[in-house]
Amino acid sequence: MYVAPGRGVARVRLCSAAARRRGVLPGMPLAEATALAAQPADSQGRFQTRMHSPSGATAGLPSSVVSARALLDELAVAHKPDSETHSSVLHLEPHDPVADRAALARLATACQRFTPTVGWEEPPAGDDPLASPDTLLLDISGSAHLFGGEEKLARRILAGFARRGLRAHVAVADTIGAAWACAHVAAEEINCRAGTALLDKPAVAPQGGFETASSAIIVPPGESAAALAELPVAALRLPARTLALLAELGLARVEQLISLPRQAIPARLGPEIGLRLDQALGLSREVIVCRSLLPPLEADCSFETPLAAREPLLTVLGDLLRQLTRVLDERRHGIQALDCRLYLENGLVVSVPLGLVQPRADAAYLRSLLELRFEQVQFAAPVSALRLRVVVSAPLVHRQQELFATDLARDRQRHLTELLDQLASRLGGDNVVRARLVSDAQPEQVCRYEPMLLSGPAAGRSTGSKEAGIASGLRLGVRSSPGNDSRPLRPRRQRRKRAQEPRRAAPVTFRRPLRLARRPLAVEAWSVVPDGPLLRFRWSGGEERVARSWGPERIETGWWRGRAVRRDYYQIETATGRRYWLFRRLDDRRWFLHGWFE
Amino acid sequence: MSSHLGNSRRQMVELLARQIRGLEGARQVDFGGAISSGCHEFDRWLPERGFRRGTLVEWLAAGAGSGAGVLALVAARAACQEGGALVVVDRQQEFYPPAAAALGIDVAGLVIVRPRNQRDDWWAIEQALRSRGVGAVWCRCDHVAAPREDNRLFRRFQLAAERGGALGLVVRPAATRRLPSWADMRLWVEPLAAREGRCLRVELLHSRHAATGGMLAAVRPASVELIVDDETGAVRVAPRLAIAAAGQRAARA
Fold first, then answer.
1. B12 in a structural domain
2. How many angstroms away from the CA of B51 is the closest CA of chain A?
3. Which comes out higher in pLDDT, residue A32 or A593?
C-alpha cells in the first residue's frame, strides 16, 4: 500500500488487488485503510500484505512496452497469505514520484534495444497532481522486421519485462492513441474485434498477488478505428471531468463519439474530445517526446561567505555558464531552457527560469539574459549557493557562411530572436505573444495568444538534465504508419482530413475596431423609439451625438457555452467624426461601448 | 522640353535637400529610401515624401476613435514589407489583431508585447526600436509625463531608432501637443464628418526636415484630408469641396 502524505491526513495512493477486495481504495485515509486491512480474513484464511517499492523496479514493478501498459497499481502492492503465522501483515511505503520516474527511465533505457525512439507520456495536469507517468511509448517503424515482425517483437518485449519480474500490456497500432487505448482498456476487455490478442500466460509467478496477466495486442494497419469502436470512452485519455460529462450524456463507447458530427464536438463537449479522437484515429498529429539518456547537466557553486551584491554573483554565473556551454558545445547543442536556483542564507530557494526562442551556446549572451531576469527578482537574504540546470537543450543550427554575399533576412532573423529573448527574459514569456485568429462569434474570443518562446523552431525537444534522470513506471507504445518518419507520427489520412479541423482562421473584416476594451463599458444611450437607431450616448463624462451608424450585426453564441452572449453591434460615427463600436445587449436592451476605431 | 526642365529642377531640389540633410544631421544613418504611407498624394505632402527608417513619428490623436492609430498602422505595414518584424507594444492590452488583419497585416508574424508597468513599457519600446530585426514599432503612449521626463524619454527612443533602423510610430493623446518633441515628425490627426468613407485631417506640427524634401514648405498646405475606405482600408486624399460640404451639413444637423 502506498501512502501519499497529504495535508494533515495521510492517504492511500495505491493498493493491491487483495487490499481492494477488503475495501481499501486509493484516496482513503490511511487510518481507515489500516483498520480495514486488519479485519479478520475471509474463509480462505488470513492475509499477509507485502509492499514493493516501484523504485526497486526489479522487485515489484510491472510494466509495458511498445504499446504496453504497466500495471503499476497492482504491482505496487504485493500480498499473499502467510501460512506460518496466519496473521495479517500490512506493509506501508511512502509514495515517491521521483523514484517512480527513475524506475521508468531505467525501463526506457532497457527498451532502447528495440528502437531508438522511446518516450513516455506525461499525465495530464489537473486531474491528479501526484500522478506519475506509467506508460512507455516506442516508435517501432522500421525496426519490427529486425525481430521477426511485430508479434515476435511484442513477445520479446514481454519476455524482457518478465525477466525483470514485471508484467506489462503491449499494444501495437498505427497511432499513439489507438495503442494507448488497446494497452489500457482492450487488455482488460480483450475482445478487440480488429486486433490480434496474444494473451500470454502470466509472465512471472504471481508471488505478489497480481491477477492480471501480461498481454499483447496487435492492431493491423488501418484497423485502428475498428479496434477503438467498441472500447469505452475512457480509452481516449480524457480527463475525469470530461468522462463525467460524457457519462451524463449517455455516451459510453468510442463509436458513439465517432458517429457525432465533428464540427459540433468542440463547441458542445470541449476541445479535448475532438483532439483525442483525432489523435487516436490518426487525423491529428501526436509526437513521441524522445527521452535522452544523457546525464543531467548541472553546475553549481557554494560561497563561504554569502554574497549580497549582484555583480560578483553574475561573475560566478558567467563562469558556470561557460562550464555548461563547453560541455554542450562538444555535443553541438545549445541551451534552450535553463533553471537557475539561488540558495539564500535564510534557507529559502529562489528559482529563476530562463527560456530562449532558439538554442544558444554563448555564455555571455545567456548571462546577459539572466541579468535581465535578476532585475525582476528581489533577494530577501544573501546568496549562499548557486546552481544552474539545463532543462532543455537542442542541436545548434549551423549554416555555411557566405564569403561575399550578406544574407539580410538571416541577419534580421537573428536580431529578432535576440530581441524576443530579451523581452521574454525581462517581461516574462507570457507577455511576448503572437496572435492566432480563430472562427468565433464572440469578439473577445476571436484571438488566441501564444507565447513566442513556445513557437520557436526548436522548442519542445528535451535532452539531458534531471528530466531524463528522474523517470519511472510505465505504459504503452506505438507503431507509426509504414513509410513515415519515426517522429513525429503523421498518419496517412492526416492530410486529407486536416481540412475538417473545426477551428479555422477567422475571416477578416475591416469593420472591427483597432482598440477593443478589455471589458465592455456600460454607456447611457438615447434613441427616438425603443430599440430604434441610436441618437446620442454618454461615455466618460462627455456626450456624443450620432451622425452615421452601420448595423446591426447580430452576434449570438450557443447555449452550450454556458451563459449565452446575444448582442447587436453598431459602428457609430459621431458628429465630430469619431468612430466607436457599441452594442446593445439583447437580454436587457442595455448599451455598451466595446471598441474604438483608433 | 518642359519635361526636361522639370526633371532637372526636381533633381536640383533633391540635391539641395540632400546637402541640407547632411548639414542638419551628419550622424543619421541612411537606412534606404522613403517608406510610402500608402497614398501617393499624401507622400508628396509629407516633408520627406514618406517616412524614413530609423526615425520616430508621433501621431497625436484628437481623441478616442480619431483614426490616428489606423494611419500609423498603415505606415507600419509599409515599413515591414521589405523585411523586419512588426512589433506592437500594447501595455493597455487593448490592441485588437483582427483590425490589423483587415489591413493586410500578417497577424501570425506580429510580435505583441504586453508590459506590466509603465517602466517596462518604455523599456520594451526602446529595445524594439534598437533591434535590427524589427521593421516598425507601433505603440500607444497614453501616459503624459512631465516635460523634462518626456523629453529625455523620446530622445532615447529617437536614438534607439537611429541605431536599429526601425520606424517608430507612437500614437499619443492630444494633451502631449504642448510638449516639445524629439520625434522626426509630429502629425496631428483629427476626424472630420464625411459623406462616404472615413475622413481624417492630418496636420504637420513638426518635422526635423520640413524644408528638405517633398512639397516645399512654402507651397505645402497646412493640412491634408484623407479618406480611409471602409471596406478595404485604402487611403486617399479627399477632394476639399466634398469635405467642406459635409462639414456644413454636419454643422446644420
1. no
2. 20
3. A593
